C-alpha cells in the first residue's frame, strides 16, 4: 500500500455496503483497494490476478483471469434475487460457464474490451458547476428516462456550502453534478470477480446485468460511489418494462431497468445508441435549462464538450479524484476537494419534485 492514492473511504464504507450481501468483506476490501492501485498504475493487472484469482474462484466459482468473463447464462430470467443469481453462476462452475458462453455465441467481456480499445471515440461530459442552478431537472430526467429502482439515482446533484466561503442563507450553496465518471481505467472494472464490467467501443463503462453477481465489490471500489445495488427489483410505480432495454451484438445486457440482485449506475443513456435520432445524447443534457451539461466525444475537437471548454483556461476546470482513476467527466468551476464542506438540502429538494430520497450508499 502506498501513499499515492486515497483509500480511506473504502475503510469507511465497506462494512455498510457489504452488510446485506453474501460476499466476503475482507476480500472485497482488499480487492477494492488493489483495484484502485491497478487503475492508478501502481499495480499491474497480472499481479492483481495472481493475488486474487484463487480467492475469487473459491468465493464465487468464477475465473478472475477471464475464463468466465461475460458468460451469459442461457435461459437466465431477467429478474433474479442476489442469492439465486450467484448460486446459478457458482454452481455452474468455471468450465460449464465457459462452455455456455461459447454455445450462446457470447465472448468474454475482456475480449470485448480489447476489441473496442482501437476505437477513437470517447463519450464524456463537461459539467459546469458555476452555471448549474441546482434545480435537479437533470436528476428528474434521468429518473424518468432510465426507470431506475426506487431510491436509486444515476445522476445526482450534491449541494453544499464550503467552509472557506460565505453564503446568504441555508439554500445558497455550491453544487457538484455526479453521474458515473466512465473512467478510462475504472476500478469497478478491475475489481469485478466475474468480469461483468467492461468498456464499450465508445468509451462507456458498462455492466452486463446477466452476469453481474451482485457482490457489490464495484460499490466499494468506486472512488465516486455512483454504484447502487438493486435489492427490490422493478419499482411498483413504473407502468411497465423499460422499452429501452438493449443488448449489444455479443449478447451483453447493457441497458434497461437493472434486474434484482445486480449493481447499477449511469450508462450515459446507452440505450439511445440504438436510436438514430437520439444517438449521442443524454436525458440529463436535454433537460438542463441553463446549458450546464455537455455530452459528446471527448476525442473530437468539434464536439459539444470540447467547444464549451474553448471559453475556459485549464486552471478553471478539474476532474474529480483524478489521482485514483482517469475520469471522462470534466468540471468547470472551483474544485471542492480538500475543502471542508457541509451538505445542504436546497434550493430545490427531491421532495419539491415529488422524487423519493436517495438510498444510502450500499443499499
UniProtKB/TrEMBL annotation:
It comes from the Archaea. Signal peptide: none annotated. Residues 354-363 have a biased composition (Acidic residues). GO terms for molecular function: 4 iron, 4 sulfur cluster binding; metal ion binding; oxidoreductase activity. The keyword Cell membrane does not apply. Pfam families: Fer4_11, Ferredoxin_N. Keywords: 4Fe-4S, Iron, Iron-sulfur, Metal-binding. Coiled coil: none annotated. Residues 63-84, 315-363 are annotated as: Disordered. Residues 123-152, 203-232 form the 4Fe-4S ferredoxin-type domain. This is 4Fe-4S ferredoxin. It comes from Halodesulfurarchaeum formicicum. The lineage of its organism: Archaea, Methanobacteriati, Methanobacteriota, Stenosarchaea group, Halobacteria.
Amino acid at each position: 500500500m502506498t501513499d499515492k492514492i486515497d483509500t480511506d473511504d473504502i475503510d469507511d464504507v465497506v462494512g455498510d455496503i457489504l452488510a446485506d450481501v453474501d460476499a466476503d468483506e475482507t476480500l472485497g476490501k482488499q480487492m477494492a483497494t488493489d483495484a484502485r492501485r491497478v487503475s492508478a498504475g501502481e499495480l499491474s493487472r497480472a499481479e492483481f490476478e495472481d493475488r486474487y484469482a484463487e480467492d475469487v474462484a473459491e468465493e464465487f466459482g468464477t475465473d478472475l483471469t477471464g475464463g468466465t468473463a461475460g458468460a451469459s447464462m442461457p435461459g437466465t430470467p431477467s429478474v433474479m434475487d442476489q442469492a439465486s443469481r450467484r448460486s446459478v453462476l457458482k454452481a455452474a462452475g468455471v468450465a460449464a460457464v465457459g462452455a455456455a458462453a461459447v454455445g450462446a455465441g457470447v465472448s468474454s467481456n475482456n475480449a470485448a474490451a480489447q476489441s473496442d480499445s482501437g476505437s477513437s471515440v470517447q463519450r464524456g461530459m463537461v459539467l459546469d458547476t458555476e452555471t448549474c442552478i441546482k434545480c435537479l431537472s437533470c436528476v428528474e430526467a434521468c429518473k424518468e428516462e432510465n426507470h431506475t429502482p426506487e431510491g436509486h439515482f444515476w445522476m445526482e446533484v450534491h449541494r453544499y456550502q464550503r467552509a472557506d466561503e460565505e453564503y446568504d442563507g441555508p439554500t445558497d450553496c455550491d453544487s457538484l453534478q455526479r453521474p458515473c465518471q466512465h473512467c478510462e481505467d475504472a476500478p469497478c472494472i478491475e475489481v469485478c470477480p466475474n468480469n461483468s464490467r467492461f468498456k464499450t467501443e465508445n468509451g462507456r463503462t458498462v455492466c452486463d446485468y446477466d452476469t453481474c453477481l451482485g457482490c457489490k465489490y464495484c460499490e466499494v471500489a468506486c472512488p465516486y460511489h455512483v454504484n447502487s445495488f438493486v435489492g427490490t427489483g422493478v419499482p411498483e410505480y413504473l407502468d411497465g418494462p423499460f422499452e429501452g432495454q438493449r443488448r449489444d451484438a455479443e449478447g451483453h445486457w447493457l441497458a434497461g431497468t437493472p434486474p434484482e440482485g445486480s449493481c447499477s449506475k449511469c450508462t450515459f443513456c446507452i440505450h439511445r445508441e440504438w436510436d438514430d435520432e437520439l444517438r449521442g445524447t443524454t436525458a440529463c443534457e436535454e433537460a438542463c435549462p441553463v446549458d450546464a451539461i455537455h455530452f459528446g466525444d471527448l476525442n473530437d475537437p468539434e464536439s459539444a464538450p470540447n467547444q464549451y471548454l474553448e471559453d475556459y483556461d485549464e486552471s478553471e476546470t478539474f476532474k474529480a479524484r483524478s489521482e485514483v482513476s482517469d475520469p471522462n467527466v470534466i468540471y468547470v468551476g472551483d474544485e471542492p476537494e480538500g475543502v471542508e464542506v457541509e451538505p445542504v438540502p436546497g434550493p430545490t429538494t427531491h421532495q419539491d419534485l415529488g422524487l423519493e430520497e436517495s438510498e444510502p450508499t450500499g443499499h
